[in-house]
Amino acid sequence: MIKFFFRLIKWSVLLLLLLGLLAWFYPEKFLTVDSGPVTADVLILIGGGGGEHERAARAIELFKLHAAPRVIISGAGDDLINLRLLLAGGVPARVIEIENRSKTTRQNAAFTGQLLRDEKIHSAILVTSWYHARRVEKTFEHSVPDVHFYSRPSYFGFARADWNRDGLNKRMRLEFLKLPGYWLRYGVNPF
């Protein structure tokens, strides 16, 4: 019985190491969550990302495709930049709402989640970077379980050749630390 137990532990550790290596070398397969073409009550543009403002560009694209009739900008710091980009991209001011208190993904979900509840929103499309998509979706689902969330990330820097540009490689690799951190600290299951 003890040999069986040790063998089970050995194979479990090897399997976890193999999965860890696969995730490390193919992060785009693990970190990216994309719901495909969907419609919802609102788009939620998560602040942050690279220097190319790819998240705002993706939100503009989805708005023009009629994925949602409204946009909520979530995140302090670049909220006014995102607002200017949305307006310049043709999104009318009357359909944009700003949540500008959040400084973390968890706060994005908590503060924006309160807006969603107050406005009785039933579905939302989360717009973020591809490497941030899993944590954003799981955090929002955990924080606001009564709303159905979809993920439609930006694919800026998705090509492996671009990962070293603008520190994307570092931000992407940090997601592997943040996912278990959110699971242990806040109970956000990344799977």
Secondary-structure topology with pairs:
Blueprint lengths: L1 H24 L1 H5 L10 E5 L7 H11 L6 E4 L4 H10 L7 E4 L5 H14 L4 E5 L5 H11 L4 E4 L16 H19 L5
Parallel strand pairs: 1-2, 1-4, 2-3, 4-5
Helix pairs in contact: 5-6
- Quaternary structure annotation: single chain
Overall CATH architecture? 3-Layer(aba) Sandwich
Number of strands: 5
Per DSSP, the total helix count is 7
**CATH topology annotation:** Rossmann fold
Shape: globular
Poorly predicted ranges = none
CATH superfamily: HUPs
Q: What's the average pLDDT?
A: 90
Counting helices, strands and paired strands, the structural category is alpha/beta
- Counting structural domains, the number is 1
Distance between the termini: 31 Å
What would you report as the Rg, rounded to the nearest angstrom? 18 Å
Q: Helicity, in percent?
A: 40-55%
Give an overview in words.
With about 190 residues, the protein is an alpha/beta fold. It has one domain (about 30-185): HUPs (Rossmann fold). It is about 50% helix and about 10% strand. The chain is built from 7 helices and 5 strands, in the order H-H-E-H-E-H-E-H-E-H-E-H. It has helices at about 1-25, 25-30, 55-65, 80-90, 105-120, 135-145, 170-185, and strands at about 40-45, 70-75, 95-100, 125, 150. Strands 3-2-1-4-5 form a 5-stranded parallel β-sheet, with helices on both faces. Helix 3 (about 55-65) links the parallel strand 1 (about 40-45) and strand 2. Helix 5 crosses helix 6 (about 135-145). The longest helix is centred in the first third of the chain and has 24 residues, at about 1-25. The radius of gyration is 18 Å and the shape is globular.
